[in-house]
Amino acid sequence: MTARDLTKATADELSRTLAAGEASSVEVTQAHIDRIAAVDGAIHAFLHVDAEGALATAADIDKRRAAGEKLHGLAGVPIAVKDIVATIGLPTTCGSAILKGWIPPYDATITQRIKAAGLPILGKTNMDEFAMGSSTEHSAYGPTHNPWDTTRIPGGSGGGSAAAVAAFEAPLAIGTDTGGSIRQPGALTGTVGVKPTYGGVSRYGLVALASSLDQAGPVTRSVLDAALLHELIAGHDPMDSTSINEPTPDVVAAARRAEVKGLRVGVITELGGEGFQAGVRARFDEAVGLLTSAGAEVVEVSLPSLEYALAAYYLVMPSEASSNLARFDAMRYGIRVPPADNDDPSAEQVMASSRDAGFGDEVKRRIILGTYALSSGYYDAYYGSAQKVRTLLSRDFAAAFATVDVLVSPTSPTTAFPLGDKLDDPLSMYLQDVATIPANLVGIPGLSLPIGLADEDNLPVGLQFLAPAKADDRLYNAAAALEALLESKWGGLPLLAQAPELEVAR
Amino acid sequence: MSEPAKGISRTDVAHLAGLARIDLSDAELDHLASELPAILENVAIVQRAAGDDVEAMSHPLPVNNVFREDVEVPCLTPEEALAMAPASEQQRFLVPKILGEE
Question: Is A100 an annotated catalytic residue?
């Protein structure tokens, strides 16, 4: 393969290329570092690039492979990691000024697994501050741009990981998803993103946003690649008390099976009508038609409690976030900014001025909202009621999965919108998550698959599959089948083959 | 503070900022006080979703206390733990005075 082919290849293709000795990991890694240098000025997917570290890992893998060592299938295939995942030696800022320059003294479990398998880590990807946002515009280090149209947002909070993969800067990336931060950027950039079952992937070493909702997962350009990465990072971890102590479903076999004949597919009545862009609905209806033509049994399923899901999410998430972010107190890590008008401030005054200086607008908004929802006297009305909505939703999903194997909806109500469009309208920004948050509230897995371009703006549309908890394999089977049906329509190529060429800096 | 259904005043926001230990500027207080009522109005619909008979769900999957074996495992060295501290002295985090002058 030429250097250009190496960046266009899937992780599965690279894995086989490396195993066959047709390219070295150093060549593959260097090709991606060169691509980052060429396009990331315009995309800004990365907050930090570790060329030296990535090449050192690659050289080590090449040496071990040459020595005949049995390696992990993804050994030598480079990866990008969201900046909320702790990585020894690499800055981990969560897109926040309060953690500017922070280098963790420990690795997240995900990081340990990536390192143990020998994947060179290209760098850390941009994100909305502490994963709060749906556009990556709330990063303290500037927004990421959508590779399909650099005047538009790539989705969020994991816009950096999605854009890095969509712009061929990395074949694989790690994302985290609290309300859609893997899936919605996947939809908006024409990439595949998976939120595994809550507890399926260890949260140890992820900086916590909302502990009962957060889940890390794969960001890739194909369903099989997502399954390969899922398999690598999933599984029980004693360092995370919410980690599921059971074997992970065989997601790779499911992605290879790709058979929807007889599969019962439920179209969610409440997600896809009012508020959903015409081009999103059109591509979604076509994709459902393809599933039907391939032998799936498609029915409509109603989940009445979805009406309350967004409201419940915007109480649970800020409440948990306000509590989690209390740890940023300017005492043990993070920036310390004393008040300007006080030459002998107390710890508490330093704490308050540091948090004012270090947190951005959206983080402050959510901390105040969460503090309110948890206040004495309001707790039952807000946080308590929101927790009850989770129970209702959970019952709705249980009833739905009694009659269907998977549920489908559009991933996002719209395609990528222009940068700045919703920055002063938080409610409109929050609506971006309407289809993705239910999965987080009840802990079930979800996958977003690119299904085409909207007629009105030629921008990518995503379809979301949902499955019962611990049945992540169903997502991969159904999505891989739909992916194959769509790609045969697109001349055997992925949707990203239709993306405009990015200008290359020299 | 006012009743939950009636929203949130600028004074409320200032009080919450104090509880959250964020020294918000006047402009930030004005801005949040103008935004939060609409957000709260939207999220308040959860109050009519479920009656008293519905249990609250704090966690997607059942969670129990999880204990590990009581054995020594490696942990951070003092140097590692203090490496990113804003200030440290004698293997300890150095913090500003805890008590104000009263």
Answer: no
Q: Which CATH number fits domain A3-238+246-305+391-497: 3.10.450.50, 3.40.50.720, 3.40.50.12230, 3.90.1300.10?
A: 3.90.1300.10
Look at residue A195 and give its three-state secondary structure. Answer: strand
Rounded to the nearest integer, the mean pLDDT of chain A is 96
What 3-state class would DSSP assign to A76? coil
Q: What digits encode the pLDDT tens for the residues A123-138?
A: 999 999 999 999 999 9
The residue written with tokens 């802990």 in the block is A443
Measured between beta carbons, which residues in chain A are less than 8 angstroms from residue B31? Answer: 361
Other CB atoms within 10 Å distance of the CB of residue A130: 30
A157 included as an active-site residue = yes
Which phi and psi (to 5°) does residue A163 adopt? -70, -35
User: CATH code for B1-50?
Assistant: 1.10.20
* Lowest mean pLDDT across A45-49, A327-331, B49-53: B49-53
Residue of B54, B63, B86 with shortest CB distance to A330: B86
How many helices (H) and strands (E) chain A has is answered by: 17, 11
Q: What is the DSSP string of B27-77?
A: HHHHHHHHHHHHHHHHHGGGGGT--TTSPP--SSS--------S-------
Q: Are A87 and A121 in contact (CB under 8 A)?
A: yes
Q: Is B32 close to A368, i.e. CB distance below 8 A?
A: yes
CB–CB contact A311 B23 (8 Å): no
User: Which residues in chain A touch residue B55, judged by CB atoms under 8 angstroms apart?
Assistant: 388, 391
Token pair for A432: 């971006």
